[in-house]
Amino acid sequence: MDHGAPSTPAKHHVGVHSSDEGFLAVMVPFLREGIAAEDEPDPAAVTTSRKLDLLRDALGPDARHVDFLDSARWYRGTPANSMATALDYYVAHASPEGRLHLAGEPVWPGRSPRQISEWKRYEALATELFTGAPPDLMCLYDTRTAPPDVIDAARHTHPTELHRHGIRPSPLYTEPAVYATQDLGPLPAPPRDAIGIGLDGDLTAGHRFAADQAQARGMAPDAAARFGRAVSGATGYAASQGCDRAYLKLWSTRERVICELRTPRGRITDPFLGFRPPGPGTRPEDGLWDTRQVCEFVDMRSGDEAKEGWTIRMETALVPAG
Question: Helix, strand or coil for residue 194?
Fold first, then answer.
């Protein structure tokens, strides 16, 4: 995936439909195009079990050339978890040249407004990560199950829309970095009873602080250790940016543990930090990949020209011991 070609958007289509017939009208031609593509592996369809059955019936004998996958398993966890699933699948199944037809329908029912907001940004991220790469990706949106604001967001995060008459550019498409950072207000202040420490010199000391505090609040030891490693991904990134001082604050509710890292200087300019998987080399932000895999929410904020410094706030479920 070429991050140096932002002017060439990925083939990342949105397929909006409002009926089973509309679903098949966009999916069947897309999958048959993948089946017919020379030197390309079988296409994949990720959706509900009911819609997978519809596809099998509509494709007939061609169904044997499609990899059918249940969306409940593909899209479980956080957006970062699903991105890891998609990237792992792509690496394992794409042709040597990177070609693959892959269509998926995200799961919207049961998600909170905050989770939905994160999933909207996930779609912008997919366009960013696959920019310059050769796969054909399509995301399905059913107006019967996806809220109207989600449908609207989809048209902002996908460069093209695939419908029964072909592919057309999306007039609402917004550059991924712009979409991912719009409407980000300031984070709420930590509660007054938050526990804080200053980190000077060895910023990685935050790992033990976070793990101990999480366990003291009732989190199971193995979960607390994972959370400590997630926090070390953020402190390690701070150290790589030349920060010799930082501050950690940690607090909890009955169901959540939250840890915040603040630095007195520097800025975060990349809205996709931690979403790109580690590659063959080592990058300063690689530890943030693990941070996002462990934490349900990872919020990043940066100061402006008048106020330097940045914040990474990490939040996860309080998994109780026993």
Answer: coil
Residues in the chain predicted with pLDDT less than 70, given as ranges, are 1-9, 304-307, 322
CA angle 64, 69, 70 (to 5 degrees): 140
| Interstrand relation of 256-262 and 310-317 (parallel, antiparallel or unpaired) | antiparallel
pLDDT per position as a tens digit, 151-164: 999 999 999 998 77
Integer Cα distance of 160 and 140 in angstroms? 12
Torsions phi, psi for 18 (to 5 deg): -130, 10
CB 154 within 8 A of CB 123: yes
Pair 309, 263: CB distance under 8 Å = yes
Which domains does the chain possess? Answer: 11-181 (3.40.50.300), 195-317 (3.30.565.10)
Taking the model in full, what pTM does it have? 0.88
pLDDT digits (tens, 9 = 90+) for 154-211: 999 999 998 777 889 999 999 988 998 887 888 999 999 999 999 887 777 788 999 9
Give 186's DSSP letter: P
Cα 213 from Cα 250, distance rounded (Å): 8
